[in-house]
Design brief:
By secondary structure, the protein is α+β, with helices and mostly antiparallel strands. It is about 40% helix and about 25% strand. A hairpin with a 6-residue loop joins β2 (about 15-20) and β3 (about 25-35). The longest helix is centred in the middle third of the chain and has 22 residues, at about 90-110.
Length: about 150
């Protein structure tokens, strides 16, 4: 699974769901990731055999995502802005999950995993997307807790 970064804080229970029958491709979710810059929000991504190839940081107006092999290219080399006008966390989460569902195979190929691209299971992706939404709902208002703990600013 993706590496947690020293100096960042993570609130809520981590969720992991398989996206392939072999379990080599997984989706992870950190319900609230608090960056050193005092911003934060949910973070989710997809790993192939423990190597993260895509990450979504739906952190509202400062949200972004990483494509092309996050672990290979690093944060700066893979940084990508959400589409224009997509500035709310809920919309960014939905858009990111749609990208995994609709473009996951192409993104895997582009990130250098062509032999794994066909292993993504459509039903497992759908179940994982539903689990992300339910998990975030069940975790409750972690943002207010992070603000109270001065992990992020309002």
């Amino acid at each position: 699974m993706a590496t947690m970064i020293d100096g960042e804080s993570y609130l809520g229970r981590v969720m992991i769901r398989p996206l392939s029958k072999s379990g080599d491709i997984i989706l992870y979710l950190w319900p609230l990731r608090c960056l050193k810059s005092k911003m934060g929000g949910p973070t989710f991504g997809v790993d192939v055999r423990g190597e993260e190839f895509i990450r979504f940081d739906p952190h509202g107006p400062r949200g972004h995502w990483h494509k092309g092999g996050y672990d290979k290219l690093g944060a700066g080399g893979s940084h990508t802005e959400f589409p224009d006008g997509l500035v709310d966390s809920a919309g960014q989460i939905s858009w990111g999950l749609e990208q995994i569902r609709d473009e996951g195979q192409k993104m895997l190929e582009a990130a250098g995993y062509p032999s794994d691209a066909g292993a993504i299971d459509e039903d497992m992706v759908k179940a994982a997307a539903e689990a992300v939404m339910a998990h975030l709902e069940n975790e409750g208002d972690l943002r207010s807790r992070a603000i109270d703990q001065e992990l992020i600013t309002a």
